[in-house]
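Usage

Read records sequentially. Each one opens with the input sequence:
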Amino acid sequence: MALLRLDLQYFNQEKTEQATPKKREDSRKKGQVAKSQDITTAILLFAVFVFMVAFGSTLGDTLSSIFTYAFTETIHLEVTPENVETVLFQVSVEAVKVVLPIMAVAIVAALVANYLQIGFLITGEPLKFDLNKVNPINGIKRIFSARAIVEFLKSMLKVSSIAVVCFTILWWNRSELMMLSQKSIGNAIAFFGQLTLLMGVAATLMLLIIAVIDFVYQRYDHEKNIRMSKQDVKDENKNMEGDPLIKSRMKERQRSMAQQRMMSEVPDADVVITNPTHYSIALKYDEDKADAPFVIAKGVDYVALKIREVADANNVVRIENRQLARGLYNSAEIGETIPEDFFQQVAEVLAYVYKLEKRAK
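and closes with the structure output:
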């Protein structure tokens, strides 16, 4: 039995259950999401290279104008603090015109890549100081973990893929490379620029393919890491719905308070119908509140006894009618008017009660 109990405890602690929505939301708030950094890098590089292909000539003209101005105009200026400051300012402005669009495209591409993977998320949890992150034992475990091996193989795949792509493009253009000595400087620079952009776009596309595969793996690994044990699911449900012991105590207290309120209404009843010991139904007829008699208290066994005691203490008439008491108890709740089927019987009871009260007066 002890071994069986240990096996059950181990089974309950084994993380075999899919993460609940609350677990996923809590993990997301901590920054634990399925994300591939390679997708961000690939989309960023692809956007930059596409931008260079589309606007590279314009940026090249801007750079050429900087050098032309430097070697034709500024070279003749006298070296003074004012002239140096002016030249540096002009060159900086022109350099910003070249660099700023590229940086803007890279930032937008990075934001879009992250949004496509995880949506809108801002959290500072990953930046919090954690001693486990600097624990050397944990560091060694991470170095020799399965995830580290996967990352190493992925890096080797990226390097080899990029090398193959670049070598293939250079091999296809080997004849033109051999003839560069016959071209002018401008044509040679233009050829190298086009070749570089071509290798960049091709390598980026290869990285994007690898990144998609990596994203699938990251999702699998994330789902595996946030799995829950059966005990975790039970604990979460208990926290969300409340401790059953506390809930039962609250319900018991609510019932007790309801009974106290109900007992406080019994002295105002017109009649208490009993069965004669197991059921007690207190009825009242008030034309201003309802068109028919309504139930102000009811109960069985102990509660029925308390209703009878309160009724006797306040001189409320008690009528024993087994069939009527049981029928009213099963058909009407506290505060509800009695069903139409019992109108005749209750009317006869109330008439008898009113007759007794009139005779007593």
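Summary fields computed downstream for this record:
- The radius of gyration is 43 Å.
- The chain has two domains: 33-123+134-226, 258-360.
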